[in-house]
Amino acid sequence: MYAFNFERAADAKTAVARLKADPAAKFLGGGQSLLAAMKLRLASPSTLVDVARIPGMAEIRVEGNEIVIGAAARHADVEANAEVRQRIPALATLAGGIGDRQVRAMGTIGGALANDDPAADYPAGVLGLGATVVTDRRSIAADDFFKGLYETVLEADELITAVRFPIPDQAAYAKFANPASRFALVGVLVARTGNAVRVAVTGAADSVFRCQPLEQALSGDFTAPAARGVKVDAGRLNSDLHGSAQYRAHLIPVLAARAVEAALKG
């Protein structure tokens, strides 16, 4: 590891000001992605600005028909939170399947979203549940947040402060995990609120995406057989040593069906 400066921000305003002053600085949440990138020399920030200990940034609370999760909330905190488990159990399940125990104890939701790994779980949760990403300067709808491979609409000095999750009528997450990393070879979150169904897929393409054929099928018939009957085009999907695009296309409706079954069981 090379030499760099480390600073602990007292509040969001101070953290953002530090990055405005030094474009080579980076925010540090749990460090589960950034520190690994630094060890591999894929990132070389001049300064790490720790935002994980900003007061209130790890809070999880209910506001009306939403659960608000602070950006510094650890994956293990989301998994264990009683309100999340009661109101959006799919999100607790998703958080509990991220990485290993060390990753869940250190990694944060804000860091995971800012990094936007194409095989990460939280992007499926945010997009599938129609959440809103709140930053130090604006609120961003999930449909507008993710742009591509490791790319979001965040500006270089923009800090995620919280994520607002609407509470659905039913939702569940199903994942086919890489046994070594626990990243999603394919992960599918299905959520239904009233007659509207959202289906978000991670791990299968360069970035998380909504699967319109599944949404259309499940809006008319919210059952596992309806999901299994959908054919997904493999044209935009990834092929790598873990699985072909055709294999991922096969997995998407299979996992969607499992998610629907879990959602219906409550």
From TrEMBL:
<dbReference type="InterPro" id="IPR036318">
    <property type="entry name" value="FAD-bd_PCMH-like_sf"/>
</dbReference>
<protein>
    <submittedName>
        <fullName>Carbon monoxide dehydrogenase medium chain (CO dehydrogenase subunit M) (CO-DH M)</fullName>
        <ecNumber>1.2.7.4</ecNumber>
    </submittedName>
</protein>
<dbReference type="GO" id="GO:0043885">
    <property type="term" value="F:anaerobic carbon-monoxide dehydrogenase activity"/>
</dbReference>
<keyword id="KW-0560">Oxidoreductase</keyword>
<dbReference type="Pfam" id="PF00941">
    <property type="entry name" value="FAD_binding_5"/>
</dbReference>
<feature type="domain" description="FAD-binding PCMH-type">
    <location>
        <begin position="1"/>
        <end position="170"/>
    </location>
</feature>
<keyword id="KW-0274">FAD</keyword>
<dbReference type="InterPro" id="IPR051312">
    <property type="entry name" value="Diverse_Substr_Oxidored"/>
</dbReference>
<dbReference type="InterPro" id="IPR036683">
    <property type="entry name" value="CO_DH_flav_C_dom_sf"/>
</dbReference>
<keyword id="KW-0285">Flavoprotein</keyword>
<dbReference type="InterPro" id="IPR016167">
    <property type="entry name" value="FAD-bd_PCMH_sub1"/>
</dbReference>
<dbReference type="InterPro" id="IPR016169">
    <property type="entry name" value="FAD-bd_PCMH_sub2"/>
</dbReference>
<dbReference type="InterPro" id="IPR005107">
    <property type="entry name" value="CO_DH_flav_C"/>
</dbReference>
<dbReference type="GO" id="GO:0071949">
    <property type="term" value="F:FAD binding"/>
</dbReference>
<dbReference type="InterPro" id="IPR016166">
    <property type="entry name" value="FAD-bd_PCMH"/>
</dbReference>
<dbReference type="InterPro" id="IPR002346">
    <property type="entry name" value="Mopterin_DH_FAD-bd"/>
</dbReference>
